[in-house]
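Course assignment 3, question 2. Fill in each field.
Student: A.L.
Task: Predict the tertiary structure for the chain below.
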Amino acid sequence: MSYLDDAVVRYNKLLETGPYRDLSWAEALHRRMEESKLSAGGRLICPFLRPHFISRRQYDHLVKTGEALIAAIDRMEQIVLANPSLLARLELLPAEKMLAAIDPGYQSFEVTARLDSHLNNGHVRFVQYNADSPAGAGFADTLADLFWDVPPIKELRKKYSFTRVGGRKYLLQALLKAYKQFGGTRKPRIAIVEFRQAYQSGQSEYELFRDQFRNEGYAVEIVSPEQLEYRNRVLRKGSFEIDLVYRRLGVQEFLIRFDLGHPLVQAYRDRTVCVVNSFRSELGHKKAMFGLLTDESLISKFPAAERKAIREHVPWTRLVAQTKTTYEDRTIDLTDFIARNRDRLALKPNDDYSDQHTYLGWEMDDAGWERALKQAMRTPYVVQERVNPALSVFPLMSFGHLEFREMQVDVHPHAYLGRVQSCSSWVSSGKRGFSSAAGLAPTFILDPKS
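Answer field:
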């Protein structure tokens, strides 16, 4: 048993048979979450009573491989912008292509990004790159602060060293660096642009960022796209003039509601406002980007560290099409290969903001898989090789009673200007559909005390 497994067992025993069987501490933790408005639709964003633990070695590995992969994605994005045939393989909408052609005025394709990974027995596999409007870091930081002093964690800290891996401060630094590269000289007035739900309960994650930025001395407003105006080369919300936009809405989500004449696009095109992430981030956000990265013919001249990160840590991925391609150095007919290898393949929408479903072949019968493949041929989908998830037992409080469930854990390294500097975790049953036992968990680095 590894020391991480031992720590989980010790923690669970403290709750099951130790002094913390009385769940008053858990009730107090939930109250603090509610007071901090860490809920959505009446549900706590973290229903679990334990953070996720990773080792220092695992975290360092996530950082090293994650940064190498992000560098490779950045390199591929530059190639794609100059190559129409490769750009076509990403299946961007026409309006997305037009936005991607606009120079944002600063160097980075993604100022902030999130990798979704399965960290299993020390081996990491990255299944997705969230480059459009990555979420989770703000909530995870706040949850880490709440969990740090709960009694079972304080007890476990007698035996283990814990480290929090928060990223809020790095986000502001990255925004300001992009603004400086853009040519901004004065202290920026910042708009956090996101769609606001009419009857939203709880707190938006970006209210946390707004408050943090204000505490650092910046003028900040949360703005809906409908509230923006562009007059006399100034983007504004009422009397609030905007220098820097932290974009918290997806490109496809935005284009469903607005056209390219929207004030935000006009100001972006005129380069009178710095928009982070830029609309070019959609290149990396499409799942078909992993199809380009896992095509050996396209990465043969990439640096060795980037090729190693791709080959060892990115599952084989292809845009679904009636075509020939390669798999493990052999040529295959793609649709025939998909049809015959249901047990080891998944079909995923190319863009998360579509209303299409993900299909896991190993959970379906042949007839259902055939229907899924037909759907994937009609609208942009990728096929991706199966990645085994990481599992861990988490405690929950259900109707006042303690229970333990084996859950799937997806680890999310958060990167700022290409550097991985924080981490969160998503814990779920791993099954499709709604489940009340799913949510964010803070991630603590845990190591034995010497």
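Instructor remarks: The two ends are 19 Å apart (CA to CA). The chain has a mean pLDDT of 93.
Grade: pending
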